[in-house]
Design goal:
alpha+beta; six-stranded mixed sheet; five-stranded antiparallel sheet; 15 helices; 12% strand
Length: 509
């Protein structure tokens, strides 16, 4: 049993008369048709008690209210013939049996408990009420991930329910050191937010900093984890994400084991993880379920796709426009023949193709699934072939843009892939105006910006800058699990030992 603590004295304490409290509730929810007030009388040997259950229809489990709360409550109160304090204790026991119970003493706290999905018990003659945890209602069931699919690995994904998400992590992480701290953020939405970390493994200073930034948030509503991300991230104006989001419980659990802190937002199927580095966005959960050399090859493939998606259009524009002497003669003749009759310069041609692809991709996401694939086929095949046949663009440009788009999809993190798309346009503009010199200047500025970023104090390019040799075992390639003895330096707290000794498997001798 918990008693609600208020920082300031409430201006609207509960009244002794039940009808006065119900009138205040009706006045606060004048136009809410989902507010349910169930009044009933409990007969007794000396006098009968007037009681009421108050809850929001759709936020509660009606079966739990009827079977676990209402019936036991009436039976206990009708048989109890003691003093008022004894009866109120009996009400608390019944509420605790149905779910977590909280005592409320003012109208604001009472209304907040109702909106959280609790059922409030009001009794005539008592200036207090008991809120019982009966939250329920319709919720989306656990399904497969939609943005972070794997061939081998768990098929569960987070849902919009806060408690379901924390239970998915707790089911995998049974350590008694797992800490879950709850907060309520949003003046109007009153959104529940949970902060999860492993005590002793997570850096305590980072935990305190995250708690401090969450407490500073003062806004009307938090509807998704993206709201939290914008309020607490280090580099708010940087296009690069400094907080990782995942819909996979196994990825969130792995992050906690590395020393990261998870932020779970009620109503969001994505969990935030911090602090992170730039190389975190190239990791996939499947990397640790495959053999290490297969995972290393796939990770190198992702880094290669990243550079292709970032640089291929700008390099093509720079070389064909300013440095054609760098191309072999046969290739140069072929490209010149393709561009013969094309009225647009290379920069404008590439910009139009890239923008057309972005429009088609956005249309495929927004359109219904039944016709979304058809739009992609029409855009990729029909429009591209028709544009080449009409002489508006060259066939080589179609190949460049198509391969760039495919490489962009190889990046596991959607946030980073969108960032790469934005930077690609800037590099294309530099390539069209300054050639390869502009591309090199753009890359230098990009490296300087990345080196200046921090994620809750952790350098964004760690362990490359600063160079930490022990952390390189799980960056560009993945070493065998039995060889990664320590957790990442700079992210984990004092306890950096993952396994006590190397357990290299050996054949029986």
């Amino acid at each position: 049993m918990q008693k609600r603590k208020e920082k300031h004295a409430s201006p609207h304490p509960l009244a002794l008369r039940l009808e006065d409290n119900l009138d205040s509730l009706r006045a606060a929810a004048t136009k809410r048709s989902d507010l349910v007030i169930r009044s009933f009388h409990v007969p007794g040997n000396r006098n009968q008690m007037e009681c009421a259950l108050v809850y929001i229809d759709g936020l509660v489990d009606l079966t739990s209210i009827n079977e676990s709360l209402l019936h036991p409550l009436m039976n206990v109160l009708s048989a109890h013939d003691g003093d008022s304090a004894g009866r109120f204790a009996a009400i608390q026991n019944c509420a605790s049996a149905a779910g977590p119970a909280v005592i409320v003493e003012d109208m604001e706290s009472l209304w907040q408990q109702i909106m959280q999905g609790d059922t409030v018990i009001l009794v005539n003659g008592y200036p207090q009420a008991v809120a019982s945890g009966t939250s329920g209602g319709e919720r989306r069931s656990i399904t497969e991930p939609t943005t972070q699919n794997v061939i081998r690995g768990p098929k569960e994904a987070f849902t919009e329910s806060l408690r379901t998400n924390t239970s998915l992590i707790s089911r995998r992480l049974k350590s008694p050191n797992l800490r879950i701290q709850n907060k309520v953020i949003g003046e109007q939405t009153q959104t529940n937010v949970s902060v999860l970390y492993l005590e002793g493994i997570a850096d305590e200073s980072v935990v305190r900093e995250i708690q401090k930034r969450l407490d500073r948030i003062q806004t009307d509503g938090i509807l998704e984890g993206g709201y939290i991300e914008e309020f607490i991230e280090d580099a708010a104006l940087s296009p690069f994400p400094t907080i990782f989001n995942t819909e996979r419980p196994d990825a969130a659990t792995a992050g906690l084991l590395e020393g990261q802190i998870a932020i779970v937002v009620d109503g969001s199927p994505f969990v935030l993880l911090a602090p992170v580095t730039f190389f975190t966005f190239f990791d996939s959960s499947e990397d640790y379920y495959q053999r290490f050399y297969i995972a290393s090859f796939l990770r190198l493939l992702r880094f290669g796709a990243f550079f292709v998606s970032l640089l291929l259009p700008s390099l093509y524009i720079a070389v064909t426009t300013y440095h054609p002497e760098m191309l072999p003669t046969t290739l140069l003749v072929s490209l010149v023949a393709q561009r013969e009759g094309v009225p647009l310069p290379g920069l404008i041609e590439a910009f139009l193709m890239e923008i057309t692809f972005e429009v088609l991709r956005e249309a495929g996401v927004r359109m219904p699934k039944a016709i979304g694939s058809a739009i992609s086929i029409v855009g990729a095949l029909v429009l591209g072939q028709a544009a080449v046949a009409a002489g508006l663009i060259s066939a080589a440009m179609v190949i460049i843009v198509s391969f760039t788009a495919i490489s962009n999809f190889v990046i596991p993190s959607p946030n980073l892939s969108v960032t790469v798309g934005l930077i690609r346009f800037a590099l294309m503009l530099l390539a069209g105006t300054l050639g390869l010199y502009g591309v090199m200047v753009g890359l230098m500025l990009l490296c300087i910006h990345l080196a200046s970023l921090r994620s809750f104090g952790v350098p964004y390019l760690m362990p490359v800058a600063p160079l930490i040799w022990t952390n390189l075992k799980d960056v560009f390639i993945r070493f065998p699990l039995w060889s990664m003895r320590t957790r990442p330096d700079g992210i984990a707290g004092k306890n950096r030992i993952r396994q006590k000794k190397f357990l290299k498997p050996r054949p029986p001798g």
